[in-house]
Amino acid sequence: MKFQGKTYKFGDNVNTDEIIPARYLNTSDPQELAAHVMEDADPGFPGLVKPGDIVLAGRNFGCGSSREHAPLALKTAGVACIVAASFARIFYRNAFNIGLPILECPDAASETQAGQKIAIDAGQGIIKNLTTGKTYQVDPIPPFMQELVAAGGLMEYVKRNLTAKF
Fold first, then answer.
1. Which secondary-structure segment (H or E) carries 92?
2. Exposed, middle or buried, 7 (CB in 10 Å: 0-12/13-18/19+)?
3. Disulfide engineering: 1 pairs with which of 54, 112, 122, 150, CB 3.0-4.6 Å?
4. What is the pLDDT of residues 129-149, one digit of tens each?
């Protein structure tokens, strides 16, 4: 699992209402959610984010409610990966359940600036800031979690495995 993209940076305690405001939760259309992703934290974000871009954040990213809409909106908007100092536990689980890879690396999250380019090898646990040349070592995403991401999330993983067995 390798990613390379431009970074967008957010602070500590970004909650699920900032990721996808509750006023948009009357839809389950991923494209509609993506059109409003992060707009309360950064109104320009939905129009700027491109497929392959990477979100950086501080501590406790994704705190708040347990809605799966938050990681789904980020993934559908094109965010390839999120690197944060830490994640709220329910967001962590929801991200992998919908197939959005995330990595915890406080140093990379704090030292990398918005607009820089980074390359990530999630299977090896390497984050390289292509702008500064600095490399960070993190715990790699475990193989099973990589399989979830590759399948497109938990539901797709289960469907594939059930279909293969019957």
1. helix 89-98
2. buried
3. 122
4. 999 999 999 999 999 999 999
